[in-house]
Design a protein that fits this description.
Blueprint lengths: L8 E4 L11 E3 L2 E3 L6 H12 L3 E4 L6 H4 L4 H16 L2 H5 L12 H4 L10 H4 L15 H20 L4 E4 L21 H11 L5 E5 L6 H7 L5 E8 L26 E5 L5 H18 L3 E6 L16 H12 L4 E5 L8 H15 L1
Parallel strand pairs: 1-4, 1-5, 5-10, 6-7, 6-9, 7-8, 9-10
Antiparallel strand pairs: 2-3
Helix pairs in contact: 1-12, 7-8, 10-11, 11-12
Bound molecules: zinc ion.
Length: about 350
């Protein structure tokens, strides 16, 4: 099940292939991992075959990243591999990727301020909140290129394009203002939303249809009225990542009170109930008014995906695209999706739905 995406701008940068996490440490044991460079190659090939117009991402300065992220996080991500290598971790200790081992939780600090830490291996947990989001030699180049792709797609929509797609890798929606995790480093969707705002869009909504809750995006905009976040995802209360966040009673705070919407779904949910969830997100966004939409386009809610228990079909994704595309101009940002055999068709199906609506 695919559709037509002839002429759709697909923004991409070859540096997105340079991030090789080389697996993850899951429950204390190294595993191969599924966030692999081939994901991007497979998507690029499927979109090219479906007639999309592939455009290379423009490079951007740090300002657009600083609109969303703390400078300290950006500097950490940009330099930690060099520090790790200089510290001899790969050569002398056989640690071939940056991985945290101690986390300055509220319980550890006991109310004391977070100090700068001398040991490189002690610094990582101040930013990285899990052990499955590793950094290697080409990671920063890919992280930066993914953000550049999102920014370039946002600029196309600002210039009048109805739909533009950013083929971002690594994904972004689990990354917060000063934190990274969940295979995400910088929040590409939030960066696109902030860029749309600064280019003049009064109200921007992020609609997240990845199988997992986008805890990073939610946190970034939680107290903001002008960017609303709405997500349908597998229920963290049923035992799924990000475990601590993504519940239905999280509605925003302060100026953002009522702007946030979470629709958690039971494992095993298929098209009918998932599309009802997407429809609820669209109603919420329509009610608040949106000049532009950012879609966190994860296709890991599909039945064949190894990372989630949801059972959505390609036709379900296409119909979600139609619903979302009817709301306004859309920047679609790639998030998850890990079954290499089916993700190309799923992304093409969603984008064809977005285009059919526009
Ligand atoms: Zn996901």
């Amino acid at each position: 099940m695919t559709g037509s995406v002839a002429g759709l701008p697909v923004v991409w940068h070859p540096d997105c292939l340079r991030h090789e996490p080389a697996g993850e440490v899951w429950l204390g044991v190294w595993e191969e991992g599924t966030e692999v460079p081939e994901r991007a190659s497979v998507l690029l090939e499927a979109l090219t075959l479906a007639g999309a117009a592939v455009i290379e991402a423009d490079l951007h300065g740090p300002e657009a990243l600083l609109a969303v992220h703390d400078r300290a996080l950006i500097e950490h991500l940009a330099t930690i591999w060099r520090q790790w290598e200089a510290g001899g971790y790969p050569a002398e200790y056989g640690r071939n990727r940056v991985v945290p081992y101690v986390f300055p939780t509220a319980g550890l600090l006991g109310g004391l301020p977070l100090r700068p830490v001398a040991a490189v291996h002690g610094q990582v947990g101040a930013f990285c909140y899990d052990t499955m989001t590793l950094v290697g030699p080409g990671s920063w180049e890919a992280i930066k290129a993914a953000a550049d792709a999102a920014l370039t797609a946002a600029a196309l929509v600002t210039a009048g394009q109805q739909v533009a797609y950013a083929l971002c890798r690594p994904p972004g929606h689990h990354a917060g203002r000063a934190s990274y995790g969940g295979s995400c480093y910088l929040n590409n969707a939030a960066i696109a939303a902030a860029a749309l705002r600064s280019a003049g869009a009064g109200r921007v909504s992020v609609i997240d249809i990845d199988a997992h809750h986008g805890n990073g995006t939610q946190a970034i905009f939680y107290d903001r009225a002008e960017v609303c976040y709405a997500s349908v995802h597998v229920d963290p209360g049923a035992g799924w990542f990000p475990h601590y966040v993504g519940y239905a009673d999280e509605r925003g705070t302060g100026d953002g009170e009522g702007a946030n919407l979470n629709v958690p779904l039971a494992p095993g949910t298929g098209d009918a109930a998932w599309l009802e969830g997407v429809s609820a997100l669209c109603e919420h966004v329509r009610g608040r008014g949106a000049d532009a939409i950012v879609v966190s386009l994860g296709v890991d809610a599909a039945a064949a995906d190894p990372e989630s228990p949801l059972q959505v079909s390609a036709e379900g994704y296409r119909r979600a695209g139609e619903m979302i595309g009817a709301l306004g101009p859309v920047v679609a940002v790639q998030e998850g999706g890990y079954d290499l055999a089916s993700i190309g068709g799923l992304v093409v199906a969603t984008l064809s739905g977005l285009l059919a609506a526009g």
